[in-house]
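User: Hi! I'm working on a homework problem where we have to compare a predicted structure to a textbook description. Could you give me the structure for the chain below?
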Amino acid sequence: MKNKFIGLLLLSTLIMSMTSFALVGAQSSGKVVVHLKGALEADDNLKAAMEDYAYVDWSVVTEDITAADLAGVDMLVMIQADPAVEYSSAELSAITAWFDEGNKLLWVASDSDYPDGQELRIPDANAVLEAVGSSLRGENGEAQDPVTNFDAAYRIKGVSTYCSEDYKFLVAGVTYAQFHGCGVIVGYVNGNYYALEDTEIDGVHVIMTTSDTGVISDESAPAPEAHSPGEEGAFAMMVLEEMGDGNYVIATSDAPFSHYSPMYKPEIQRDDRYGLESNPNQGAVLFGNILDLAVRNGMGAEITTLEDEVDGLEDDVTGLTSDVADLTDEVASLEADVSSLEGDVSTLTSDNAALETDLAAAQSSASTMQLAAVAALVIGVVVGYFVGPMLKKE
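Assistant: Happy to help. Predicted structure tokens:
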């Protein structure tokens, strides 16, 4: 019984270990494509990210992106390195077909409407968002923050203060991230634009914003769609949308790489501005958190299979746990029986000791009586020997 009990415990431990191993084994490098359209090569910031996250299978595309480029990809980051180079209809079709596979994360970088070419990125980013059916858009305007910034109102310190509760894990370790010369992300539903600080849209989650001292600026035509110039508040600069089928869209009003001063480690270009402990920038941490979401998300089918296996193992463990509980009850019952038997043995031992005492006393008494009888017999013989003849003489 004891051996069976121990065996079940060991089997339960083994199954739980297999479960943990299955989950750990599910970790994968993930495949990420960064589309730097119009670039000659990856910039120093992207190279730093590729080195920092060397376990990821990275690919950089600088020309038109194709279905072949997207085969097996978990995360696509779309950035117009050259804002004058538009996305083609063939590219949009390839991106849509890839996204429709499910379990994908698409990051689309927009910009502000500052008239030095930045404004050209807004309609192209919106074309991608429209192609995949997103409710997010880049707004034709610019966000500034005269208070919470990196030494200039257009070098915004984006804050995680107003991050959606459902996605707090994306801003773990992030207080500030740079959004340089950026615009604003707004909602777009049924042909209407909505300010996301005022309107909730199903599946849409604000991640990073300006501080409360943010200000809307209009740098070039057309006018902002959901805000007015001079309006103050905490404006959305990074927004996540749940798209169904395990898909996510992240829209930002600046880019992690390639732009003039990107979000990912801008201290590479200006350590004197962004590398100071007194002026922290955690854009690299923010990107890493999103990358982690993308890698896990891209493994959705594999994780689902493993979860089914884990569920089966958990059922086995539940059954074994029930068996262990039954055996525990049996052991407890047997222990009670043993305790009762030990009491009986103790009583019998005591009775035996008493009997031994009585026997010893009886033996002692018998010995005394035997001696008395022998003595009486001897006396009788003596008396008979001497008294008998005397009686005859008389």
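For your comparison, note the following. Residues 1-26+303-394 form one domain. The CA atoms of residues 67 and 94 lie 5 Å apart. Good luck with the assignment!
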